[in-house]
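Input for the complex:
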Amino acid sequence: GAVVSQHPSRVICKSGTSVKIECRSLDFQATTMFWYRQFPKQSLMLMATSNEGSKATYEQGVEKDKFLINHASLTLSTLTVTSAHPEDSSFYICSATGTAAYEQYFGPGTRLTVT
Amino acid sequence: KQEVTQIPAALSVPEGENLVLNCSFTDSAIYNLQWFRQDPGKGLTSLLLIQSSQREQTSGRLNASLDKSSGRSTLYIAASQPGDSATYLCAVRNTGKLIFGQGTTLQVKP
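Predicted:
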């Protein structure tokens, strides 16, 4: 149980375009979802936290107009990187908690490359 | 502000050795602490979760300890195997967020 999926696993896009990443909880209802980014050989940095039906809470230094997060249902959250630039190239990982909020379950990650 | 530090950053050992990975955190008011494994280019696999009221957790060859008052946790791996080669991340939860350390990259040589 407690499986989180992400789609796509890899995406390459051109500079200036937007790309959407989906995060789904497959066998539980995710009351809260988190989005992280990870640069090579670095740790995970929390970007934002979202609760179903509410606006996301962004961490300091994360541009909310650039990284649009939608958590429209209890099983789906999306991260849209708008007007992507090469410096947005990174590994994006989502995670989710259910009613037992003490443990987070992580997705397999999405590798974004902006050319 | 919570800060999580892992030492060493990298470790290389021969197969069969027992080893210890260290994690320290600055704010002891944590809800729980979790150890993860990450293979290159992959997501995270949860290894062990220790609640703040617990001292240790064990799973197979892995044992994680928690000393909340001193802000330390260790991950002990017994009889290491080449398949244990990965990056190990420590993360603490407080104020509803998981804060990660930088990780320890482990290489176990056959």
